[in-house]
Amino acid sequence: MNFDQILSAIGGFGKYQKILYVWICLPQVLLAFHMMVSVFTGATPPHQCRERSTWNRTRSSMMAESMALNFSLVNTSCFSVDELLLLQGNRTQRVPCSHGWIYSQETFESTTVTEWDLVCNKAGLNSLGSSIYMLGLLVGSLIFGSMADRYGRRFVLLLSIALQTIFGVTVAFAPNFTVYVILRFIVGTTISGIIINAFVLGTEWTCTKRRMLAGITTDYAFGLGYMLLAGIAYLIRDWRKLQLAISAPGFLLFFYIWVLPQSARWLLANDRREEAIALLRKAALVNGRVLPPTVQVEKCEFATGGTQRHSAIDLVRTAQMRKRSFILFYIWFVNVLVYYGLSLGVSRLGTNVYFTQFVFGLIEIPARSVVLIFLPFSRRFSLCGFLAVGGLACLLMLAIPADHPKVLTGLAMAGKFGITASFATIYVYTAEIFPTVLRQTGIGVTSMFARVGGVLAPVINMLQNHSPATPLVIFGTCPLIGAALAMALPETAGRSLPDTVEDSLLTLFLALLDHSWPPCYSLIKKSQQKNVAGRTDPLRVDDPWVHPCLSVPQPCTKQN
């Protein structure tokens, strides 16, 4: 009896799993806060040079004057107005602002930009800070992915939540921009630890039929956090108070120490069968089931590969696994690049930033709901279609003039819809392609490549200042390339999770067999039914029914 059959016996998505997903979803709301808060805390409001005549004015008078100034005047944001007037008299040299800036407070009371004057020649530091934060996600995916395969999903998830809360609160008290960036980098590392471990922990406790629904449920929580952030930021317009408001609730998750379980699948894969059986008995009890008597510590069949340790090198050791890994690396990269490229560029669309942010969060709900409709039929074709929608929407934005912000916003939302659906699909798809012994490492490494896209997204958005079409060309063509590459991945819809690299390759073999030689595929499936106990055993590469199909490309014949 393999693990998926055990899950079905004890209830593959019963009360135990539903409670688990409540605990998994709560941190997802906080993740959305941290991922998108820079749209508000790092916003650059309209600004002008502060002249000598305003240098000694009080804060209240400066606020009144900021409301009266015309921030749309050309060339007054980085150069003195006095010097600009002298330019009319054969003066060619422009003098930068020497007394600071006056910022519009119509939308934001304070941001990191207004506090540390990250404008003009320092404007690049703002995008650099966002890129360093995304670099933290890259480092975190590498560190916490490997840690989870070695120490377990539960331990790393609890550690990540604790670190995120502590350093998230500390960010609100950063004395300067350098400290702020360092602290945000640490928060970024914890984001990856929570994302990949929460998702994998839920996936490994869920049966095949409910795996997709359960995975998308956590994405709904992220979308909820996305929308809530717009409301919180609307009410709290000081960046320090906003940072504190989104971070402090993490302390409420302290009780996770007592309620969050370990992954029974991971325990079995690491030859800790007594602990796994105890957890399975508890899950069966909560679900109102009884653990089958055939499931004993000494009899439970789980292909662990002995005590062999696996590493990221195993992702590229064989030709088939290498091809799958590289394609997944690229698709994850593209998803994050376009997702955050569109999300972080929301303030450039020319519409109300709070409303647009709310709608961008709201659109995640139907995008992920569509995934529930199409994904049961095919993981591969669904992924291709969603990537194509996201890419084409971005390319269509090139044909819309800048004086039509509502049309541009509508196309941006269509692109966000497609890439969000693709993002939800690739999480489920990747967990099904990589075997248990490499699943956490595989998702960690693919997430690392994804974070490279996150690092580049703010930089690519900066190119809009020099070439408005360049970011859209990149955000449009990259998903289309990914859609083409996805066709080379195996179909995993309705199939059990592979536990070993051998099982993973066998999944590909059966998928090809089903497509190319149906008689042989049918015969192999029938062989799984011929067990004296009357139950279905997992198909293995050393099964005598498999070898005829591995050796000759023709319909199978029974071997005597």
From TrEMBL:
Cell compartments where the protein resides: Membrane
Domain Major facilitator superfamily (MFS) profile per the UniProt entry, residue ranges: 68-494
Domain of life assignment: Eukaryota
Record-level GO cellular component terms: membrane
Topology within the bilayer: Multi-pass membrane protein
Keyword 4Fe-4S: no
Single Gene Ontology MF annotation: transmembrane transporter activity
Keywords, ordered alphabetically: Membrane, Transmembrane, Transmembrane helix
Record carries keyword Membrane: yes
Transmembrane segment boundaries: 20-43, 131-148, 155-175, 181-201, 213-236, 242-260, 325-342, 354-375, 382-402, 408-429, 441-463, 469-489
Pfam families given in the database record: Sugar_tr
Name of the protein this chain belongs to: Solute carrier family 22 member 13-like
